[in-house]
Amino acid sequence: MKPQTTEKAIMMIERENILTFEFDKRKTKEQIKKEIEEILEVKVEKIRTLIRDNKKYAYVKLKKDFLAIDLATKLGMM
Q1: Any bridge partners for residue 21, and if so which?
Q2: For 46-68, what is each residue's pLDDT tens digit?
Q3: Are the beta carbons of 47 and 31 closer than 8 angstroms?
């Protein structure tokens, strides 16, 4: 699990409460959700995935109780 800090990822954190991570291509959405909830101690509302250049990117929308900007600051993304 590797957080993405592109300009688009930062805008999604601020506007939509979505964090972007790079994962192993073989992981399923359920595995990604479980890993994020356990490691970061948050609740996930929805996950969208994208496979590009043999890498899997997960767009993780957090529940309203958890702010993505606080988590991004804690992870050193911002």
Answers
A1: 3, 58
A2: 999 999 998 999 999 999 999 99
A3: no
What are the tens digits of pLDDT across the range 35-45? 999 999 999 99
Instruction: Answer yes or no: is pLDDT of 78 > 90.
Output: no
In sequence order, what are the residues at sequence separation of 6 or more whose Cβ sits closer than 8 angstroms to the Cβ of residue 60? 18, 19, 20, 21, 32, 33, 36, 44, 46, 47
pTM over the 0.85 mark: yes
The beta strand positions in 1-78, using DSSP E, are 2-3, 18-23, 44-52, 55-62
Residue 39's identity, in one-letter code, is I
> Comparing C-alpha atoms, which of 2, 63, 58, 66 is closest to residue 29?
58
Domains and CATH numbers, the chain: 2-75 (3.30.70.330)
- Contact 37/44 with Cβ under 8 angstroms? yes
